[in-house]
Amino acid sequence: MEQDYHKTDIIIIGAGPVGLFAVFELGLLDMKCHLVDILDRVGGQCAELYPEKPIYDIPAFPVISGQELTDNLMAQIAPFKPVFHLQQMAESLTKLDNGNWLLTTDDKITIEAPVIVVAAGGGSFMPKKPRLDNLEEYEGISVFYSVKQVEKFRDKNLLIAGGGDSALDWTLNLHPLAKKLALVHRRDEFRAAPDSVNKMRDLVAGDKMKMHVGDIKELHGMNGQLEAVTIQKRGEDPFKVECDTLLAFYGLTMKLGPIANFGLNLHENLIPVDTEKFETSEQGIFAIGDINHYAGKLKLILSGFHESALMAQQAFRYVYPDRKLRFQYTTSSTDLQGKLGVKEEKVA
């Protein structure tokens, strides 16, 4: 378990724009960060839901896409070398005898830190699950909603469900590894990139994989091990498809998730904070961005950036209780410029 334990200054739950900018503000004050996010990439909603959608209210950028904003933030925080734990959910949080917090993910990674920062947007992205009897019995054994280790699917009789980019991308990526592979979607039209759809159809035409039209109605197996599923197309008789593994890509939804069990006072599934430090009802736990609530709150990225800066000032006092906090400007502080790896510009 040694390799699954980490100790750091700050744990940030959520790797969206606000969580990423928090790394910058905390890094300027010599605090190291680990970030946990359920998605397989950084950027939160900007990267997952609208990477190409233009954003018009980021200061100094008349227009910038969600992905461009994410890329710029990643470049900005690169000097501080944050550690990312992606495709993992912050499952539980406990207070240790030494005053620190211990966060455990659903992958059983444990991270210890004196400060927790919740920057989870509207909550965690949760996979949309099919409404099937006994689904929980198979989850994590033979039914999955993401690919964390490609090798896990080698030599499997794999059924992939869904019609978006994730379903088609993993169909093409896992096809060379799987013993057999089939795709099921409720209709013979897809929301994925046309090139991916064409490549999938070529595999089907070459009898290298199967494609079924219909909905999964029933799972068959024992002790969590899938053996087959029942598929039915509207107006037609159901039929069985043998498989030992199901990858379901039905999209994502936003839920507060396990954060609701962290012992924080909640207001309509949001976390109340003060407007001086953006601290929650629990000392050492902060909430920034769309997940928090206070009088006059505006759910804007730029508001989250402001909250990050004030949060970092108080977080410093928990991480370095014996050090004096000295406020500095990046434009004039050679110390801060050194941390950022830049040289002071000389005025002619």
Keywords:
348 residues; FAD/NAD(P)-binding domain; five-stranded parallel beta sheet; elongated
**Major sheet:** 5 strands, parallel
List how many beta strands DSSP finds: 23
Say which CATH homologous superfamily of the largest domain is assigned.
Answer: FAD/NAD(P)-binding domain
- Strand content range: 25-35%
Distance between the termini: 57 Å
Domain count:
2
Please, what is the average pLDDT?
90
Order of neighbouring strands in the sheet with most strands: 6-3-2-10-22
Q: Overall 3D geometry?
A: elongated
Low-confidence stretches: none
From the alpha carbons, calculate the radius of gyration and give it in angstroms: 23 Å
CATH class categorisation of the largest domain:
Alpha Beta
CATH architecture of the largest domain: 3-Layer(bba) Sandwich
Indicate the CATH topology of the largest domain: FAD/NAD(P)-binding domain
* Helix content range: 10-25%
Structural class: alpha/beta
Count every helix, treating DSSP H or I runs of 4 or more residues as helices.
8
In terms of topology, how is this protein built?
Blueprint: E1 5-7, E2 10-13, H1 17-28, E3 33-37, H2 44-48, E4 54-55, E5 64-65, H3 66-77, E6 83-86, E7 90-95, E8 101-105, E9 110-113, E10 115-118, E11 124-127, H4 135-138, E12 143-144, E13 157-161, H5 165-174, E14 180-185, H6 194-205, E15 210-213, E16 215-222, E17 225-232, E18 239-242, E19 245-248, E20 252-255, E21 271-272, E22 285-287, E23 292-293, H7 301-319, H8 334-340
Parallel strand pairs: 1-9, 2-3, 2-10, 3-6, 10-22, 12-19, 13-14, 13-19, 14-15, 21-23
Antiparallel strand pairs: 4-5, 7-8, 8-9, 11-20, 16-17, 17-18
Helix pairs in contact: 1-3, 1-7, 5-6
